[in-house]
Amino acid sequence: MLSKYVKVGDKLDLETIESLGESETLNEKRQYRSTVFDIISEDQLKVGMPMEHGKLILLPVDGEYNICFYTTTGLYQCLARVIDRYKSDNVFVLVMELTTDLSKYQRREYYRLNCVMDMKSREIKDSGSQDQVEKVEFLDTDITFNNGIMVDISGGGARFISKVRYPVDTEIMFVFSLFVNGKLNEYKLKGKVLFSEELQNNPGAFEHRIQFINILTDQREAIIRYIFEEERKIRRREKG
DSSP strand E in 9-90: where? Predict the structure, then answer.
C-alpha cells in the first residue's frame, strides 16, 4: 500500500509523538521536514535526515513519529519508528518502519515552502474590527513596521524571524511581496501568533509562527500558486 501512494521525492513531515530532547517540555511536540529517499518495502522506507537552520537533526534510533506524506493524490498519515540511520553517498538517511497502516489525512493542511524573504510586521492593537485592519493597511508607513525575514510560507500561515518579539495570541499585520504569474504583488494579511521563541544561536532574534486570519480566497490561492511555481523551479534545478 505504501508504494501505491508514496513516491521517491515526496515531501513529508515528521512530528514527535513524545518529547525526545532534554530542552523540550513533556507536552511539547516538534515537527521536521524531510523527503522520501527510497521505498524498501511496503512497511519500510528511507527518508533524508531533517535539517533546521542549516544544521542536521540527528533523530534517534527507536524514536517514534507521526508522518504526514505530501503526495500527488493528497495527504497520507501513519506512525513509524526509526530502525537505523547512516550516511549514503554523502546523504544522511533514516530507515523507518511503519507501525500503523497508511491512511488518508483528513485535517486540512497546506504545504510549507522554505524561503528567505524580506517582510514587515506590526502588532494590531485593536483587532476586534475588520474596519480597523483596513485602516491600518491604509495609514501605516514603513516607519511603523518592523523588518523581518520570512523563512517559510504556506496557504495557511508563515514562519519568520524578527528582532521584535510578539507574544503568543498577538494579532499582527504581516506584509510581504511575491512574484505570481510573472507579476510582483504585495500582500498585507492579518495573522495570529501561534509560537514565539528566542533563537538560541542568535540572542535578540525571535522565531514566530503565525496563522493567517480572514485571508481572502484569491489571496490564499495566489500564495499556493506561488509555492507550486517555486517547487517546480527547485525540482528543475535538482534535475539539471
Answer: 11-16, 31-41, 44-48, 51-52, 55-56, 64-71, 74-88
